[in-house]
Structures are given as structure tokens and as C-alpha cells.
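User
New here, explain this?
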Amino acid sequence: MSNVKMPDPAVYDLLEHKVRSIRTDRGAIYLVGPIKLPVNLDGETIPFSWYCWLNCDEATDRFERIVEKLSSANLAEYQQSSVLVYGDFEHAEHAWIRLHSICHTGDIFGSKRCDCGFQLRQSMKTIAQRGAGALFYLANQEGRGIGLFSKALAYLLQENGYDTVDANLKLGFADDARNYADAIRVLKALRTKPVTVITNNPRKLDALKKAGMDIAGRVPLWGDVSEYNKHYLQTKIERSGHMEQRESCCDND
């Protein structure tokens, strides 16, 4: 006999108006939010709003059907992406966005092997300072799409002389296997006006442009350079095509 309990029907009225569906060719993306999320940035509390989304192979307007599936799907074993929004993101004349791939080691532990943790916090600060924007935190993109365990193997190869590109290739992966389609669908559901993109990665810009998003500009995001990530950052430029700012990103030791 199953131990799965059905949700209390009384919650449907509280939750239904906070969920919208975005149809895809595989079913639908269900976007929940906005949710108030005060965030500590350098000692100051910033009032962000938060959304999370879930891919589902069923496209339905009956919200209760999706909720009923959650407890039996064991979603805690899977990552879901989300987006942190500041200001009037939908209507503001100018808005800034960042498509940020999850980095367990950099974002959570503060690893100096990469610049991901710095980029995450700096993007949030930039968005708050500019008045309107959104940071998309993209799950299932660890290690440029190879996953956390494979990333650990790639780290071992890097400790033995391989750069980040060759480490992924030697393990049988693409250099960069990330896909931004779902994030862009959510972006379009939240805003149709132009956006300024916080990135060094031309592949992100290409994905946005190919999806028909109007790009107003780009903000580079280099920093937190040290002896631990200098080669990593240079590899981004020389082998992955990341756009270098005017001064070399890797001059500081």
C-alpha cells in the first residue's frame, strides 16, 4: 500500500493564482511565484521576489492535477530552476538579466577555482543597483552541463594538467552542453521588453537572439581573479570564446 498522501484541497485556492503554465513542445513549464524573498547582500537586506519552475510532460489548466503528482514524484531528488526578480521587471523601461548556471562548489562553498560565486553575487548587486532585473539560477547545468559527479572527475583531470575544456572532452562530454531554452521561455513570460544581459559568454547572447529576445546591451562580468582561477579564466577567453573586457581579466596575481 502506498504511503503517499494527497494534498489538502484547501490549499488550492491559496496557491492556484500563483501558478501559471507555459506550453512547450514537451508538455508545459509550471511557474510558481512571485514569492517575497528578502536577501542579505553585504549586510543589506534587498527585497527580491522569487519564482521557481518545473518541467512536466502534462500540459493542463487544472492546477490541482500537478499538485497531486508532486508528493509521488520525489522531486527532492531532482533540481528545479528558479529566477530572482528585482523591481518592476515586467514594465521597467530598462532591465538587466543574468543566466547563471548552478555551481555547487563556487556558489555554495565559495571555491576559488572558478569565478561563479563572485559572478552570482555581483549580478545580484548589479540588478538591485540598476533598479530592475532578474537572475535566472539554472539547475542541471553543473560543470557546463556534465553534472556534479562528472565535474569532480574533471577537477581531478585539471589537477593533472588538463584545462577545463579538455577535461570535459576527455570524459566524453561536449565542452559546453548547456541549453537555455526553458529559461528563455520563462523570461518571455515575465518580460517582453528589451533586456541588458550580464555575461561574458557569447553563446548565451546567441541563444537569446535566436529565440527572438530583444537585447539592449551587454554588461561584462570579470573579477575575483587569483592564482587559483587565473588559468581557468584565460581558458574561457582563449578556448571558449568568452568576451574579454578592455583590460586583461587575468593580469592580477
